[in-house]
Amino acid sequence: MLELTGLTAGYHGGTVLHGLDLSVPAGTVHAVVGHNGAGKTTLVHTVAGLMRPGSGTVRLDGRDVTGQPAHRTARAGIGLVPQGRRVFANLSVAEHLRLSYRPPRRGDTTRPSVWTPARVLELLPRLGERRNNRGTDLSGGEQQMLALARALLGSPSVLLLDEPTEGLAPALVRQVHELVTTLADEGIAVLLVSPSPAQAAECAHTLTVLTSGRVGLRLDGAEARTDPTALHAALELAPTPA
Ligand SMILES: Nc1ncnc2c1ncn2[C@@H]1O[C@H](COP(=O)(O)OP(=O)(O)OP(=O)(O)O)[C@@H](O)[C@H]1O
């Protein structure tokens, strides 16, 4: 369970997140949508420990991890799939997997499941076929799978996915959402940042519309799927033609 309370963050004295409350129970997907500049990446970076919050708390299964640096939050069980994937150009898929593998400490029973490179390749067989290819030789979809694989190899309790479907073809977008659902079914708490409310609603249990760093709207995923009117209104989108 990821719990954010009163989270405030920003840059150079300016505030981007204004006292955000948000929770992601284990085994669920909480999607955060919002326009460019709403603060979605700032939120992810603050939770992952890449930025320090001005105030508020970040709790992982009840443990306070607020303001801890990224290597500590990763060790505590927060996995990050960053926007833009950030795979290493000159490392092969196999090298990425080997270097990213961080089994939980002995006796740590908090993780929903333990991910080894072999298990990750069962979930993402395409990476096995490309195991000797370098980062730059991979397609966008393959790079996205590799970024996800790297995060899974820390056996996370929480996964932060920052626009994982950016630039992917519709069939791959569906595949990413199916993977997200599979991972939540495993017991992982997934925070999914998406620029597309329709895509996010496909797999989210809960949706938050972030509006200038505040909760503009929060609604149930099933509600958003059956009647997206409120979601569209919060994002000031034109209704989709019937
Ligand atoms: N490194 C930075 N230094 C200063 N301001 C920043 C920095 N990164 C982001 N900002 C500003 O913070 C605000 C929120 O940006 P953020 O990247 O969190 O938004 P976002 O919702 O993720 O948008 P996008 O969909 O474009 O990625 C924007 O006004 C942005 O210009």
From TrEMBL:
Keywords: Amino-acid transport, ATP-binding, Nucleotide-binding, Transport. Transmembrane segments: none annotated. InterPro entries: AAA+_ATPase, ABC_transporter-like_ATP-bd, ABC_transporter-like_CS, BCAA_Transport_ATP-bd_LivF, P-loop_NTPase. The keyword Transport applies. Residues 2-237 form the ABC transporter domain. One of its GO terms (molecular function) is ATP binding. The keyword Transport applies. It comes from the Bacteria. Pfam families: ABC_tran (PF00005). Belongs to the ABC transporter superfamily. This is ABC transporter ATP-binding protein. It comes from Streptomyces castrisilvae. The lineage of its organism: Bacteria, Bacillati, Actinomycetota, Actinomycetes, Kitasatosporales.
